[in-house]
Amino acid sequence: MGLLDGRKGIIFGVANEKSIAWAIAQKLHKEGAELAFTYAGEALEKRVRPLADSLGAKLILPCDVTKDDQIQAVFDQIRSAFGHLDILVHAIAYANKEDLKTDFLSTSRDGFRLAQDVSAYSLTALARHAAPLMEGRPASILTLTYYGAEKVVPRYNVMGVAKAALEASVRYLAADLGPKGIRVNAISAGPIRTLASAGISGFLDMLHHVEVKAPLRRNISAEEVAGTALYLASDLASGVTGEVIYVDAGYHIMGM
Ligand code: NAP
């Protein structure tokens, strides 16, 4: 018997087999969840479809989260195929590469707006559509954040500010949706090599820094993030909402 037997979930943010969302999907599927997947563009569909197929997914849908009509279409299809929803995984972020190279001061209005729209606002947009399908169920919404939301991490810049908005959104959404029984939480993951992290200048320095400074003296894996995602998605975390849980080898507790 799995922890998520009979549960229905949707995963936003699988780009390839290195994606944190993919590690989470595998873990949730192993515990019995039936999953739907989305992809951001045609190029991505080629990579996401075989992965989703390998978990027996029936719904593999296009969704650029900056497009309200695409979000609406996804949840219309979820309603007709699943009837309800128990789990939503939001593992999406984007900023212009040039905004992750120099300093925060140089961030353009458009770059700021784009990072906020894709990386922060999208959680609220998805949660609003998901809520009617989740109401009255033991439902869980979870997102991925990073320490750069709270402290200055060189070159994380506009993404740090977007993650700060995302973490605040988690708290406000948890307060709005709690009375309906829907929990909303974030996992603050340590650095992991993925397509998205490859866009951050000096990412290898971040990995090295964690290895030297974190209490566990190592980096973390996507599978370890997935373990916490499973906890948050399941009834093991039935009393937990509005939280940011760290999976970072303890890095964030260090002062010096
Ligand atoms: P990833 O595999 O590149 O996943 C990022 C996903 O965001 C991709 O599937 C990407 O699709 C999607 N995305 C970007 N713009 C989108 C849009 N407009 N509409 C829909 N989807 C869009 O990288 P990842 O590292 O696993 O990232 C997943 C989450 O974890 C992100 O929120 C990231 O900030 C967070 N996180 C990552 C780390 C790390 O070190 N890797 C650490 C802490 C937190 P496209 O490829 O089509 O753009």
Question: How would you describe the overall organization of this protein?
Answer:
The chain is of the alpha/beta class and 256 residues long. It has a single domain, classed as NAD(P)-binding Rossmann-like Domain (Rossmann fold, 3-Layer(aba) Sandwich), CATH 3.40.50. It is built from seven helices and seven strands, in the order βαβαβαβαβαβααβ. The protein has a seven-stranded parallel beta sheet, with helices on both faces. α1 (20-30) packs across α7 (222-233). The radius of gyration is 17 Å and the shape is globular. The structure holds NADP nicotinamide-adenine-dinucleotide phosphate (NAP). NADP nicotinamide-adenine-dinucleotide phosphate (NAP) binds at residues 13-15, 19-21, 40-41, 44, 63-66, 91-94, 118, 144-146, 189, 191-192, 194-197. NADP nicotinamide-adenine-dinucleotide phosphate binds next to α1 and β5.
Concise overview:
By secondary structure, the protein is α/β, with parallel strands linked by helices. The protein is built from 7 helices and 7 strands. Strand 2, helix 2 and strand 3 form a beta-alpha-beta unit.
Q: Please give the order of strands in the largest beta sheet.
A: 3-2-1-4-5-6-7
The gyration radius over C-alpha positions equals: 17 Å
Structural class assignment: alpha/beta
User: Could you say which overall geometry the principal axes of the C-alpha atoms support?
Assistant: globular
User: Briefly, what CATH class?
Assistant: Alpha Beta
Number of helices: 7
The proportion of strand residues reads 5-15%
Ligand names = NADP nicotinamide-adenine-dinucleotide phosphate
Q: What is the CATH topology descriptor?
A: Rossmann fold
